[in-house]
From TrEMBL:
<dbReference type="InterPro" id="IPR001680">
    <property type="entry name" value="WD40_rpt"/>
</dbReference>
<dbReference type="InterPro" id="IPR020472">
    <property type="entry name" value="WD40_PAC1"/>
</dbReference>
<keyword id="KW-0853">WD repeat</keyword>
<protein>
    <recommendedName>
        <fullName>Guanine nucleotide-binding protein subunit beta-like protein</fullName>
    </recommendedName>
</protein>
<dbReference type="GO" id="GO:1990234">
    <property type="term" value="C:transferase complex"/>
</dbReference>
<feature type="region of interest" description="Disordered">
    <location>
        <begin position="256"/>
        <end position="280"/>
    </location>
</feature>
<dbReference type="InterPro" id="IPR015943">
    <property type="entry name" value="WD40/YVTN_repeat-like_dom_sf"/>
</dbReference>
<dbReference type="Pfam" id="PF00400">
    <property type="entry name" value="WD40"/>
</dbReference>
<keyword id="KW-0677">Repeat</keyword>
<feature type="repeat" description="WD">
    <location>
        <begin position="112"/>
        <end position="145"/>
    </location>
</feature>
<dbReference type="InterPro" id="IPR036322">
    <property type="entry name" value="WD40_repeat_dom_sf"/>
</dbReference>
<feature type="repeat" description="WD">
    <location>
        <begin position="155"/>
        <end position="200"/>
    </location>
</feature>
<feature type="region of interest" description="Disordered">
    <location>
        <begin position="1"/>
        <end position="21"/>
    </location>
</feature>
């Protein structure tokens, strides 16, 4: 199968994944969010199948910590052994860890306070000293770690919870742009230097639950509502959409997307009107060069690896 490299059943599935950008994807660290009050750092990100007991099948535990949140919603790994977590407490919490040492090496560093509700997503760009956090309070906060975690900007514009975010440059030499996905069905493009929204992408028909970028590719996935702030049940968008960062604008459309997927679709269908073949809500995605790792809910808890190479 051209698109599906691996599909594994889950007894439980990670809702969020983070990876260090140092070295090949297969050799980096992966952080898998297990949905309880503890975060875990594990090796071998290419195998994320979780049995009913909730432990990765083929991952060596390096360290863990607990007590920072009632429920962990997001995690981010930064170069130099710094782990960042966000959760229902509304705080962004920093820990240090040493991948060469034992579990006791992890240490609490600091809490960053600025959100009024749960922190659902975290991210950083080319400058790892600046991080971003998205929240159920509809905002994104920018933090300057080099200045002791000082707030650097607040991004206001989404009408519902901010589920996901990523940073990417529209050109190889250009500045990072911030992309955020929300329960309001939109993706917003921001200038981190001014905290101003540049464009809003409106093609999703439900919550945008995950987003990632590599090179000119921007991928977004739809799934369940996370961090719901009322009892309204919104439509579940189960599409994975591909956007061209070189063609961002007020009327930008995905290269392909379709509401009803077909398993026979090729990865690239020759233009608009096509998508990756799947039908389950997308919980998370990680772009690794020409590969995309996705985790899914629905009838079967699965993880899939997709090939993004042009035919």
């Amino acid at each position: 199968d051209r698109a599906t490299v691996r599909q594994a059943p889950h007894g439980a599935v990670a809702e969020s994944a983070a990876q260090l950008d140092e070295g090949p994807a297969e050799e980096g660290l992966a952080a898998m969010l297990l949905g309880d009050a503890s975060a875990l750092i594990a090796s071998q990100p290419t195998e994320i199948a979780l049995p009913a007991a909730g432990r990765p099948s083929f991952a060596q535990k390096l360290t863990s910590w607990s007590g920072s949140h009632d429920f962990v919603q997001s995690i981010l790994l930064l170069p130099g052994g710094l782990a960042v977590s966000g959760g229902d407490s509304g705080c962004v919490v920093l820990h240090t860890f040493d991948e060469r040492a034992d579990e006791e090496s992890s240490q609490y560093v600091q809490e960053l306070r600025g959100h009024s509700r749960a922190v659902m997503c975290l991210g950083s760009g080319s400058d790892a000293s600046t991080i971003f956090s998205g929240s159920v309070d509809h905002t994104v906060q920018q933090w300057d770690l080099a200045a002791g975690g000082r707030p650097k900007g607040c991004f206001v514009g989404h009408e519902r919870s901010v589920h996901c975010l990523t940073l990417a440059a529209s050109t190889p030499s250009g500045p990072d742009l911030l992309f955020t996905g929300s329960r309001d069905h939109t993706i917003k493009l921001w200038d981190p230097r001014t905290s101003v929204c540049q464009h809003t992408l409106r093609d999703h028909t439900g919550s945008v639950t995950c987003i990632g970028a590599h090179g000119w590719k921007l991928l977004s996935g739809g799934g369940y509502n996370r961090g719901a702030d009322d009892d309204e049940v919104l439509s579940v968008d189960t599409t994975l959409r591909l956007w061209d960062l070189r063609k961002m604008g007020s009327h930008a459309r995905p290269i392909w997307s379709r509401d009803v997927p077909s398993p026979s679709d090729p990865l690239y269908g020759g233009g608009p009107g096509h998508q990756l073949p799947h039908g389950d809500p997308i919980l998370s995605l990680q772009v690794m060069g020409d590969k995309v790792l996705t985790s899914h809910g629905g009838q079967e808890w699965t993880a899939r690896i997709w090939d993004l190479k042009q035919p």
